[in-house]
Write a structure and sequence with these properties.
The protein is built from eleven helices and eight strands. By secondary structure, it is an alpha/beta fold. It is globular and about 55 Å long.
């Protein structure tokens, strides 16, 4: 049995033979049930949703003790060529698991192939989950295709409101992040982060003003943070805290990445095209969209600034880079799929450079 499994599959829209299969991966602490408000727009957008929980979240295979022990060991080990290779292999394993899941799904479900703006697979990674999508793009040229050629099915990859951390960019000075607040207990960090990350923040123009445009701490009073307007039943249903604890897989991976900084190289491998190994494809024709929400926490506009600058510089230098469309989602916080589900569908499936 594959380690990644569907948490929810909405099935094909009634009567459709050219629907798009949208595969969703979740972020930190929230499993893919958090996308459930998108389901009511499946028919309108001719979409089949497949919600996939990452390992250690409900429905998918937990990491085994040896895998967790390896993460913990690398998190505290000095940086070296050996630890860098271990991290690359760990991330490649996650990419291979996702690749295998997608190939198996396309084969067994006999989904429609892409035809223009319909059919095929659209893969969406939200927040921390966007690093799984980046890992897939970074490693796809190293993964030979089997009987099912996944390159013939994948139409678009969406990196949805991922932090600057997940692309290896440097932080601004004097930033604030509750998960790194050493004045709080572990339980207090998790509790404060859950409210902080769901707030609405009135940032300035980060592209012209730099880090001085960012609001690090104080969310707007109106609208209030998404979490404060969710029912206790929804919160209990949609959150999963074990991976966030001190020895949880998400926390250990975050510690590894902060200590060894592998995400910059991962982003480079994802964005800059290389020749694939025999039997593999580098997905040169696959559309890539980076969607950032401009009222999200500061980490997302900060990352968008660097991505835009890097893409522009790479094109000027004539480097072989993927055609990445950076999409600004105006007025949206980090939970746009909960607050603005129909507009979020446009961000995933449309071609607009801005969502208003």
């Amino acid at each position: 049995m594959l380690p990644l499994r569907p948490f929810l599959d909405s099935g094909p829209p009634d009567g459709s033979i050219d629907y798009t299969s949208v595969v969703m991966l979740h972020g930190w602490g929230w499993h893919t049930g958090i996308f459930k408000k998108l389901l009511s727009f499946a028919k309108k957008f001719n979409t089949r949703f497949v919600f996939v929980n990452r390992r250690d979240y409900p429905g998918s295979e937990p990491y085994n003790p040896a895998e967790l022990a390896a993460l913990k060991r690398v998190a505290t080990a000095p940086k070296s060529e050996e630890t860098d290779a271990e991290i690359r292999e760990w991330l490649r394993d996650r990419a291979r698991e996702l690749h295998d899941f997608l190939s198996d799904f396309a084969r067994h479900e006999r989904i429609p192939r892409p035809q223009g703006q319909t059919g095929g697979l659209v893969i969406v990674g939200w927040s921390f989950g966007s690093s799984w999508v980046t890992a897939l793009l970074a490693n796809v040229g190293l993964l030979p295709e089997g009987e099912t050629k996944l390159s013939e099915y994948v139409r678009r990859v969406v990196m949805y409101d991922g932090s600057y951390i997940l692309y290896g960019y440097p932080p601004p000075p004097d930033f604030y992040e509750p998960l790194f607040d050493t004045t709080l207990t572990e339980a207090e960090r998790i509790e404060r982060f859950a409210v902080w990350v769901t707030g609405y923040y009135a940032h300035g123009d980060v592209f012209t003003e730099g880090y001085s445009a960012l609001e690090f701490r104080d969310a707007l009073a109106d609208p209030p943070p998404t979490l404060t307007r969710m029912s206790p039943e929804d919160i209990a249903e949609l959150t999963h805290t074990p991976p966030q604890t001190a020895d949880g897989s998400d926390t250990l991976l975050a510690a590894v990445c902060l200590a060894h900084q592998p995400y910059g190289a991962l982003k480079d491998a994802a964005f800059y095209l290389r020749s694939p190994v025999e039997g593999a494809s580098n997905w040169v024709g696959v559309e890539v969209r980076h969607v950032w929400c401009d009222h999200s926490i500061w980490e997302m506009p900060w990352g968008a600034k660097f991505i835009v600058e890097e893409l522009e510089e790479a094109k000027r230098a004539g480097r072989p880079i993927r055609d990445v469309q950076v999409v600004r989602f105006r007025g949206a916080n980090h939970f746009a799929h909960w607050e603005m589900p129909e507009k979020t569908m446009r961000a995933f499936l449309g071609n607009e450079a801005e969502i208003e």
